[in-house]
């Protein structure tokens, strides 16, 4: 009889419910899982607050950007192509056009009309062409060798993206034209930099002369 009472008492204690931090936790065999779940919920709440804060900051930046482009290109808002679009959608299109225009101007000023000072910092030269990730493909090569690479050779050294190869081939052609024509306004008098070798595939590393 005593043993039965003890068993009943233990069973009741096992089912005892406590209130801890307003969380009702049943003391059963899944106590460890409940504790783990509570910890996860706390972390989730923290992450949510953090992400929510970042989201608010991001929205503020977008609104600020929208106002800038809508004000800068106010006459464009009446164009048929923007009919029925929200301010944010109009701003996004205007921003994209503006950045493309800036990149085109930069490309013409530094690549179509070769900037040899930029070329000396070859990783930066690639970055300006949005091709920085291909820097390791040229490691160990001299600039004199690089500017004569054709499309097939570029693919052989690891540049498998067709658009990237075409951009590089065009840029190399402009460089060769400027180098070969002494009358060209961009013709560099000192061409010793062509003996430089790409030593490392790090953006911050300089190209050292052997």
Please explain how this structure is put together.
There is one protein chain. The protein is mainly α and 210 residues long. It has a domain at 106-209: Transcription Factor, Ets-1 (DNA polymerase, domain 1, Orthogonal Bundle). 58% of the residues lie in helices and 6% in strands. It contains eight helices and four strands; from the N terminus they run αββαααααααββ. It has helices at residues 2-14, 31-72, 87-112, 116-120, 122-128, 143-146, 151-156, 162-180; strands at residues 17-20, 23-26, 196-197, 208-209. A two-stranded antiparallel sheet has the order 1-2. A two-stranded antiparallel sheet has the order 3-4. Helix 2 packs across helix 3 (87-112). Mean pLDDT is 70; it is low at 16-56 and 201-210. This is Protein VTS1.
Identify the notable features of this structure and list them briefly.
two-stranded antiparallel ribbon; mainly alpha; 58% helix; single chain; Protein VTS1; 8 helices; disordered C terminus; DNA polymerase, domain 1
């Amino acid at each position: 009889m005593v043993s039965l009472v003890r068993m009943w008492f233990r069973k009741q204690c096992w089912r005892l419910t406590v209130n801890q931090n307003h969380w009702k936790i049943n003391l059963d065999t899944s106590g460890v899982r409940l504790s783990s779940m509570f910890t996860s919920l706390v972390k989730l709440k923290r992450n949510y607050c953090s992400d929510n804060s970042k989201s608010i900051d991001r929205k503020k930046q977008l609104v600020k950007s929208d106002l800038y482009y809508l004000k800068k290109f106010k006459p464009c808002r009446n164009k048929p192509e923007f009919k029925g679009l929200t301010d944010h959608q109009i701003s996004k299109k205007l921003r994209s056009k503006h950045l493309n225009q800036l990149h085109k101007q930069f490309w013409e000023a530094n690549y179509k009309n070769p900037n040899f000072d930029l070329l000396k910092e070859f990783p930066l030269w690639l970055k300006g062409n949005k091709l920085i990730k291909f820097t390791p493909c040229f490691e160990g090569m001299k600039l004199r060798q690089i500017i004569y690479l054709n499309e097939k050779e570029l693919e052989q050294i690891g540049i498998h993206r067709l658009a990237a190869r075409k951009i590089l081939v065009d840029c190399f052609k402009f460089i060769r034209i400027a180098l070969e024509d002494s009358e060209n306004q961009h013709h560099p008098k000192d061409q010793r930099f062509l003996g430089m070798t790409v030593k490392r595939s790090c953006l911050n590393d300089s190209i050292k002369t052997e």
